[in-house]
């Protein structure tokens, strides 16, 4: 089904909706377009608009397409000459950011209908809350923010827009679950919006009479999740200031790096807050301005921003803690008579303290990232492999959870725990339908941009697992050599 979403006097944006299964999960999908493409072909000059509105833009800044190692970053900000560390790069007066604060006269929506919808959204759906505001401004003829909105990308590469085949191409259940959840939310919210809008007179319509559907809601949510910053909002009655998500025109043209050369700052002033970025390092001519969006896993980068970071040190994989799975892993590791499914009462007690057993356990555990093995999983294995309750009780939970606390329960206990985690990793790898080599050869053959993104994502997940296996094998070797030396 092809749907169109049109705005008066503005370009058409097309979306397709594809029915994936009988359970009526429908995924909105974008038209093929480059991530450079803006919602109008020749939008107004954003730098000039910010300056005209009283903002400051460093004279060496320009907007241009960004590419690195075959990856397109869309547009970005670039230094056209050397900029010294500490320089002010951009400063936005308080009226330029697009935000939504409940008591904000500027942002009071013209229709109580949208306010009602907004109130029904849970706090974690802040991207949709601000998205509604963005859609409203996009629909408004003569909006103050039109010079900004017209410079936004026409399409996004977040997986809610992937075709069914590319969603499957991700091969990673926790992400598939999140994508499904977002798609389902958009479809349900689409219905709620329609119900609220259907009886309105044209003059009361909050979106200028334009149809709002799952695709346009998805566009708005992706625009916000990939560009908004959480900064201080207005001072509340008790003198505190809430964190408010806001869109910062021009500043949001900065792409991401874990080694940024620019930093976002808020000049706190009761009446007249300014959102600014400053140079955190010297910036050489032709270098892009880069901000750190956060130390996030690739799941968040892909879901919210539509890109994947190769060799991301913060990337992790999720596993479900399960005694039977641990038994299977120890069998695979050649460790006889595993007994993880029926721990002793004292072990069960520690599992409850680790939140891996008891009334409302949190069974999601992670491997990879800076921690390598989530402390709760490591502690559980150390404890379940220990036969002597007294030795275990000599250590506090934090020591048992720490990989750098070397062999708290002895070398043999540690080596066995590592062997089981390595076997868990092997089981997790087996669950992926393809191997990295096959993925790489698919990429070499050439695939669509979204397929490439999905395949890169799963390659990175498999790499996380392999890195954990390598890390633990290295530690095991070291322990074995220590053991031999001390024997
Ligand atoms: C805040 S916007 C930055 C401006 C954006 N490039 C544009 O064209 O409007 C964030 C988006 O930029 C792109 N991006 C930013 N950093 C990136 C990176 N390190 N690798 C790939 N894409 C990146 C992604 O499309 C992301 O959703």
TrEMBL record:
- InterPro entries named in the record: Rubisco_LSMT_subst-bd, Rubisco_LSMT_subst-bd_sf, SET_dom, SET_dom_sf, SETD3_SETD6_MTase
Ranges annotated as spanning the membrane: none
Annotated SUPFAM superfamilies: RuBisCo LSMT C-terminal, substrate-binding domain, SET domain
Q: Name one GO biological process term.
A: methylation
**Locate the SET domain: which residues?**
59-294
Gene Ontology terms, MF aspect: protein-lysine N-methyltransferase activity
Alphabetized SMART domains for the sequence: SET
Provide the protein name.
SET domain-containing protein
UniProt source species: Acer yangbiense
- Lineage, broadest ranks: Eukaryota, Viridiplantae, Streptophyta, Embryophyta, Tracheophyta
């Amino acid at each position: 089904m092809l749907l169109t979403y049109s705005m008066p006097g503005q370009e058409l944006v097309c979306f397709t909706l594809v029915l994936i299964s009988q359970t009526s999960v429908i995924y909105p999908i974008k038209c093929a377009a480059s991530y450079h493409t803006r919602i109008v072909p020749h939008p107004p000059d954003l730098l000039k608009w910010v300056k005209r509105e009283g903002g400051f833009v460093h004279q060496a800044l320009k907007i241009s397409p960004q590419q690195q190692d075959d990856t397109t970053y869309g547009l970005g900000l670039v230094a056209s000459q050397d900029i010294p560390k500490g320089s002010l790069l951009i400063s936005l007066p308080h009226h330029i950011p697009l935000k939504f604060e409940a008591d904000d006269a500027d942002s009071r929506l013209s229709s109580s209908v949208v306010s009602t919808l907004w109130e029904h959204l849970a706090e974690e759906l802040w991207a949709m809350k601000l998205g509604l505001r963005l859609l409203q401004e996009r629909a408004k003829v003569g909006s103050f923010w039109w010079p900004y909105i017209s410079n936004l990308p026409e399409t996004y590469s977040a997986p809610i827009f992937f075709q069914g085949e590319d969603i499957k191409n991700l091969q990673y259940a926790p992400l598939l679950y999140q994508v499904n959840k977002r798609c389902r939310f958009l479809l349900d919210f689409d219905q709620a919006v329609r119900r609220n809008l259907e009886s309105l007179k044209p003059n009361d319509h909050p979106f200028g009479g334009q149809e709002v559907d799952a695709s346009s809601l998805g566009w708005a949510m992706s625009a916000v999740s990939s560009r908004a910053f959480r900064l201080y909002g207005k001072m509340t009655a008790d003198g505190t200031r809430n964190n408010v998500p806001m869109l910062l025109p021009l500043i949001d043209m900065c792409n991401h790096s874990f080694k940024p050369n620019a930093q976002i700052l808020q000049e706190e002033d009761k009446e007249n807050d300014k959102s600014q970025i400053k140079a955190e390092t010297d910036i050489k001519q032709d270098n892009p301005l880069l901000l750190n969006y956060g130390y996030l896993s690739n799941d968040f980068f892909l879901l919210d921003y539509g890109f994947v970071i190769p060799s991301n040190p913060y990337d992790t994989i999720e596993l479900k803690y399960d005694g039977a799975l641990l038994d299977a892993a120890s069998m695979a590791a050649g460790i006889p008579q595993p007994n993880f499914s029926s721990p002793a009462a004292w072990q069960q007690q520690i599992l409850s303290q680790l939140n891996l057993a008891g009334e409302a356990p949190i069974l999601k555990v992670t491997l990879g990232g800076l921690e390598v093995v989530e402390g709760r999983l490591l502690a559980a294995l150390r404890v379940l492999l220990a036969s002597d309750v007294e030795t275990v009780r000599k250590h506090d939970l934090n020591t048992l959870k720490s990989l750098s606390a070397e062999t708290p329960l002895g070398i043999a206990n540690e080596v066995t725990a590592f062997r089981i985690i390595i076997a868990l990793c092997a089981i997790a790898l087996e669950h992926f339908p393809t191997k990295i080599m096959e993925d790489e050869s698919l990429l070499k053959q050439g695939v669509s941009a979204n397929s490439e993104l999905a395949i890169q994502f799963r390659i990175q997940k498999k790499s996380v697992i392999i890195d954990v296996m390598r890390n633990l094998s290295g530690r095991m070797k070291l322990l074995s050599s220590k053991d031999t030396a001390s024997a």
